[in-house]
């Protein structure tokens, strides 16, 4: 997208802004919470870290149920599936890329983008992303317990933006989806089944499974204590306060390993995920320690034995 003569990469811009906001606002709230207007604190936090119902009118006006997370998992499941189908038709069946797709990718990711990975790795990453989005939809629809927690509309918008940027970012550096790229060879299955991809895929599925386990433990705890929060136990909760965030970081690390360091868009997504999940984990970890005197001292916030 050209703005004042400059071809702006919207994915870099959006994720960059999100990342800076997470770091800056978390730092400010961490050190100056008592001196800040309450609406700033309430706009940044959500769920249990709000420490009760929203009090300021402006945040109450823009708050939505936390259960609306389901909406952007519906979106991401459909959107990632469409991207996968488009990539499959082009990379394997040899179908021509529709002009509207070229135009859309040029608009969002700039005309000067370069190839970031092979068609085989792009397809594998899109398959895994689609599985992850579909599983998260399943969790939100059928695993998570009903909750009265809320979030503000800004968190809701960030959810849509994240999955749009991730899916679009992966596809935009595929060889066939860059108008200036040279013709590429036919799809080769052997280029998918490599040691690197097998290890990364194993970590991906391991993380998916343990993230599902974490959400089931949360749901069981909510059913037992519907009106209050408790201390979760079992599986990776014995090591960290937020194993679901830890697994999210591993999932996107796996995608980054598959696509490689030349794929700059997945690296931007990975950095955003690491910052976002780490900050959210420390907020939750701090809340647990503040509200439970018997909270396990050996637990870290997100990274086992480290942080």
Describe the protein.
36% of the residues are buried. The chain starts with a strand and ends in a 16-residue tail after the last helix. With 307 residues, it is mainly alpha-helical. Helix 1 (10-32) packs parallel to helix 10 (264-291), helix 4 (69-91) packs antiparallel against helix 6 and helix 6 runs parallel beside helix 8 (195-224). The chain has ten helices and four strands. The longest helix has 30 residues, at 195-224. A hairpin with a 2-residue loop joins strand 1 and strand 2. It has helices spanning 10-32, 38-44, 57-62, 69-91, 99-109, 119-143, 153-172, 195-224, 243-259, 264-291, and strands at residues 2-3, 6-7, 63-65, 150-152. Strands 1-2 form a two-stranded antiparallel sheet.
- Can you tell me the overall shape? globular
Compute the average pLDDT. 89
Give the % helix. 55-70%
Give the uncertain stretches in residue-range form.
Answer: none
Content of β-strand: under 5%
* Tally of DSSP β-strands: 4
Query: Main beta sheet, described?
Result: 2 strands, antiparallel
Number of helices: 10
Provide the succession of SSEs: EEHHHEHHHEHHHH
Specify Rg, calculated over alpha carbons.
21 Å
């Amino acid at each position: 997208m050209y703005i004042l003569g400059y071809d702006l990469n919207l994915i870099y811009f959006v994720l960059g802004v999100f990342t800076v906001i997470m770091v800056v606002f978390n730092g400010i709230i961490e050190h100056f919470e008592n001196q800040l207007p309450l609406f700033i604190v309430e706009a940044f936090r959500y769920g249990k870290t709000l420490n009760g119902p929203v009090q300021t009118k402006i945040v109450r006006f823009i708050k939505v149920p936390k259960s609306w997370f389901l909406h952007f998992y519906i979106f991401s499941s459909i959107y990632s599936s469409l991207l996968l189908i488009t990539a499959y038709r082009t990379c394997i069946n040899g179908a021509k890329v529709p002009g509207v797709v070229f135009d859309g990718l040029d608009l969002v990711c700039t005309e000067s983008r370069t190839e970031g990975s092979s068609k085989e790795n792009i397809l594998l990453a899109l398959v895994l992303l689609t599985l992850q989005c579909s599983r998260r939809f399943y969790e939100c629809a059928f695993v998570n317990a009903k909750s009265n927690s809320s979030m503000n509309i800004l968190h809701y918008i960030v959810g849509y933006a994240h999955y749009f940027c991730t899916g679009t970012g992966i596809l935009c550096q595929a060889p066939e989806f860059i108008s200036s790229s040279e013709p590429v060879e036919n799809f080769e299955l052997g280029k998918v089944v490599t040691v690197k991809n097998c290890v990364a895929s194993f970590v991906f599925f391991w993380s998916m499974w343990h993230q599902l386990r974490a959400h089931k433990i949360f749901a069981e705890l909510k059913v037992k204590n519907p009106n209050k929060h408790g201390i979760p136990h079992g599986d990776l909760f014995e090591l960290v306060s937020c194993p679901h965030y830890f697994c999210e970081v591993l999932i996107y690390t796996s995608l980054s390993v598959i696509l490689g360091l030349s794929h700059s868009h997945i690296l931007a997504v990975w950095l955003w995920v690491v910052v976002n999940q780490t900050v959210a984990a420390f907020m939750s970890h701090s809340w647990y320690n503040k509200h439970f005197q018997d909270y396990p001292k050996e637990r870290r916030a997100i990274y086992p034995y480290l942080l």
